[in-house]
Design goal:
Layout lengths: L2 H21 L3 H24 L5 H23 L9 H25 L8 H20 L6 H30 L1
């Protein structure tokens, strides 16, 4: 197992640490763990490409680690005792999108026998703004961040979440033709 996969597994082990810190109302510590997880994500991708350590295991584990961390962030921040949290509707939209895309991908794979996934610019923007929303909400529990800024990031993330869902739906329907 190469260093890239080891970093991905380390990131997976950071998820319960992050959840525990949220549960104990430690937003600063949770933010540090979230940032470390993000850095390991960037680093494992760099190492895999640079040193030709791209593996099937890495291709499977990396997106699972990313989604597990983000979904955990949304659910556990929403259900926490933190002062600033995600709105319920936002958590539902974000998780529903992921379930929808997963089910759609599985359906395409079952019907076509293969799946050719190409990340869209809207999907990348969705991921960026969802990550930013976690950072901003945790940050708002550490220091003063104006409510309008927090809401602005959440609404922007919501916009791209819905837009990327629509574009992936369109792409999926085109793939089925």
């Amino acid at each position: 197992m190469g260093l890239a996969n080891q970093l991905t597994i380390f990131r997976i082990f950071l998820i319960p640490v992050f959840i525990i810190l949220i549960g104990y109302n430690k937003p600063l510590h949770a933010l540090v763990v979230f940032i470390i997880a993000g850095l390991t994500d960037a680093l494992d991708g760099f190492i895999a490409r640079r040193f030709n350590q791209i593996t099937t295991l890495g291709k499977v584990l990396d997106p699972i680690a990313d989604k597990a961390l983000l979904v955990s962030s949304f659910v556990f921040i929403y259900t926490s005792d933190l002062q600033v949290k995600f709105p319920y509707w936002y958590v539902v939209i974000v998780i529903s999108r992921d379930v929808y895309i997963l089910l759609g991908s599985a359906l395409i794979y079952l019907l076509k026998g293969y799946l050719d996934v190409k990340p869209s610019i809207f999907g990348k923007a969705t991921t960026f703004f969802q990550i930013l929303s976690v950072v901003v909400v945790l940050g708002a529990n550490i220091t003063h961040i104006p409510e309008v800024a927090v809401k602005g990031v959440i609404y922007t993330a919501s916009f791209f979440t819905v837009l990327s869902t629509l574009t992936y739906t369109y792409d999926g329907l085109q793939h089925l033709k």
